[in-house]
Amino acid sequence: MTKLKLSGVSKAYGATMALRRGDLEIEAGEVHVLIGANGSGKSTLCKIVAGSVRPDHGEVLIDDTPVTVSGPRAAQALGIGIFYQELSLAEHRSVAENILMPDLPREGGVFIDRQALVEKAARVIALFSKVAGAELTAETPIGRLRADQRQLVEIMKALASEAPVLIFDEPTSALDRAQVDRFFEILRDLKSEGRSIVFISHRMDEIFAIGDRVTVIRDGETVGTAKIADTSPEKVIRMMVGEQEGLAAPQSAPPATAAAAGSVALVVAGFSGQGFSDVSFDVARGEILGFGGLHGQGQSAVLRALFGAPPALSGSVALGGAALRTTSPRGAIASGLAYVSGDRGRDGVISGRPILENVTPIHALRNRLWLARPGQLAQKALPALKALNTKFAGLSHSIGSLSGGNQQKVVIARWLIDRPDVLLLDDPTKGIDLSAKADLFALIRKLAEDGLAIILYSSEDAELLNNADRILVFNGGSVSRELGGADRTRYNLYHAAYEAA
Amino acid sequence: MANASPVTMGNQSRFGALLGRFPFLPALIILIVLLVLNGLFEPNSLSFRSLTGLVRTYMALMLLAVAQTYVVYAADIDLSVGAIASLVNVTIIVLMQHLGGGGLSVMAALGVGVLVGLACGLVNGLVVAALRLQAIVATFATSIFFTGLALTILPVAGMPAPAAFWRTYGGSFLGIPFVFYCAAGLAILLYLLARSRLATQLLAVGDGQQAAFQSGLPVTAIRIGGYALCGVFAALAAFCITGDTASGDPLVGAKMTLFSVAAVVLGGSALSGGFGTVVGSVIAALIIGLINALVFFAGTPSHWQNFVQGLAILAALMVGILVSRRGRR
């Protein structure tokens, strides 16, 4: 019997289609796995079911009746509980309050029934008592818990809803083996009670351990559903890869193979810090080194650590043969490193200020300019902006008047006035349009030809496959595989990324 | 550094845990220090009479600080609390005057006063939470609007309150000053509110609006609830102002607004929301009162009083923050 059905659901954020055509059918008493590459639309699909995102088109049916999920409250009323990947916990509230936040037990209408609160919460906490750690009690504030314990609390919150349909969006990313095992036992119990469970995970072993059926989603479209018993990890990866097997798209120039000719620019050895450990690699002048793998496996953290924001805890870095110790971005800039983040709002754009001021801060820093002469600066800014085909009305216009792609070009142009030696690109094309992407990669390849060493992390696999000379695949904070030459295929990339950690 | 003695570590984390449970601890310490200082400069200031006077004068600020705290819980702010208090002050004065000033008319006026405060709070809530305007600017605008209303009701300060009203507020029952009954009533009210669903939900919204929304909380309604509560407490503050000054003044509350914000911060609440206590705000309101008294008792020349008062509040804020930081580490 079909418990929950989604047909033809879509959602666009501005010009970006987060979900093109989502179809999903969940039966009562099954664990249904949803799998897809980075940004393929899984989380959007889940949020539509949970009511925190409204679909543009399509239908949601529960027990074969079309429903409108107008918000998270409506979803709760319809019997849908969800585990949010980014967690939905209140830092300063206690575990018990968080677990029951959606429906705090009342006393006399306006008061919280403290006794019922603690009792109900304790019942859910007890499910994980052996694996959660002693600090996790009903009274502990969330702020005092470790990452894995917070994830457990979010799981408990979903379980406490006692909803017939439960959605878990990457619930195990921070959990250890014992915690995952216990969680799976609970899921099996729920399944036997006839509840429907949607489960998202990137760990192939988990998917095959707990799933009954798997639905693969690719580029915002549901590709197909299969019984776990009838499929294999290889088949699932094939479905995720689809027809796009042929690697470098023909329209892009083949990646420069000048790598061998260039001298080594940056050598990193035994690099460890927050979110990554024992990472070693080198980049040559004229080479584009790709960082690949799933989101948040340490790629950004390594790049930020190289730039000193914050510095790594241990390991050595050598730039052009000389040891380099960056303790702050200021020092990194002085030694010739450049860093461009995909998170423009936080790390790039100086919002509300003119374009000129946004192009020149690095130049001003490196040359210790104390007085700004707009005329002179403009002379330096214009060629840098032109190199990227940046479209803007005038240097004095606010950066906010530009599109996302052009804003990012301005941020990159910043580094082009005085050439750095190493360019660190941290998912630089996040949320920018296709033509800007093309301009950007044309420039990146040209910079490489000019002898810059470039490290590119991208969450879009096509960008890596088309542009990187070598790809390091990250998994759980360390490099699990290096792909070079003909090995750079989408299949190999996925295979390395989805390997059991 | 590496061999930091485990004893200090233990002490610090124990202090941290204590601070986690009672975030108003630094404020309480400052309060005690100030009481001692006051006693040193003017032994008389610790007498029952003077303490009663202190509470009577600063009851209004305590209530305004409490009002502000509930809004700050949800990471909002209300710059109109003073204006609401003024509006309620003139409303009840004019009403009592019109109704004759007897016991019944006083009660009726107070009832209307609470409703006026509630209405003002609802207006703020609708403007900030439902229309999604910036809280700082929107409540600043409504404060001007409320002040305008107050000026229409009573254009000039000075209409006296009926004797029945201020004699009660300044008087005693069974040998205990009336303000202490007020304080006890406030304590019970705060205890009940701390147990309410609304208080917890406000704090959850302050911790993260998106998370609260995804948890299924009616975020807009909760924020409006916070502002409504704030309006009611501002009205109660107005009653105390009226009892203390025994007259109507359409601008009486204006200067108290930012003091209420200062008290919230001094009391250990986070302006970024999600964390704080009303008890801390009450204590902090008393701290501000004691600082004013101390400046007076220390014999500061009148033209220096503002200067010293400002410095003292800054110092108190600094001490509070330093103590909390040590505890949190």
Would you kindly provide a written description of the structure presented here, covering whatever features stand out?
The complex is a heterodimer of chains A (501) and B (329). Chain A has 501 residues and is an alpha/beta fold. Helices cover 33% and strands 26% of the residues of chain A. Chain A is built from 18 helices and 22 strands. Chain A has helices spanning 42-50, 72-77, 95-99, 114-126, 147-160, 177-192, 204-210, 233-241, 299-306, 329-334, 344-348, 355-359, 361-366, 374-387, 404-413, 434-449, 461-467, 490-498, and strands at 2-13, 16-27, 31-35, 57-62, 65-67, 80-83, 106-107, 111-112, 165-169, 196-200, 213-218, 221-227, 264-273, 276-284, 288-293, 314-319, 322-324, 337-341, 422-426, 453-457, 470-475, 478-484. Chain A has a 6-stranded mixed beta sheet, with helices on both faces. Residues 245-256 of chain A have low confidence and may be disordered. With 329 residues, chain B is mainly α. Chain B has a single domain (25-324), classed as ABC transporter involved in vitamin B12 uptake, BtuC (Orthogonal Bundle), CATH 1.10.3470. Chain B has 14 helices and 2 strands, in the order αααααααββααααααα. In chain B, a hairpin with a 2-residue loop joins strand 1 (172-173) and strand 2 (176-177). The longest helix of chain B is centred in the middle third of the chain and has 28 residues, at 103-130. Chain B is globular and about 55 Å long. The two termini of chain B are 15 Å apart. The relative contact order of chain B is 0.20. The model of chain B is unreliable at 1-10 (pLDDT under 50).
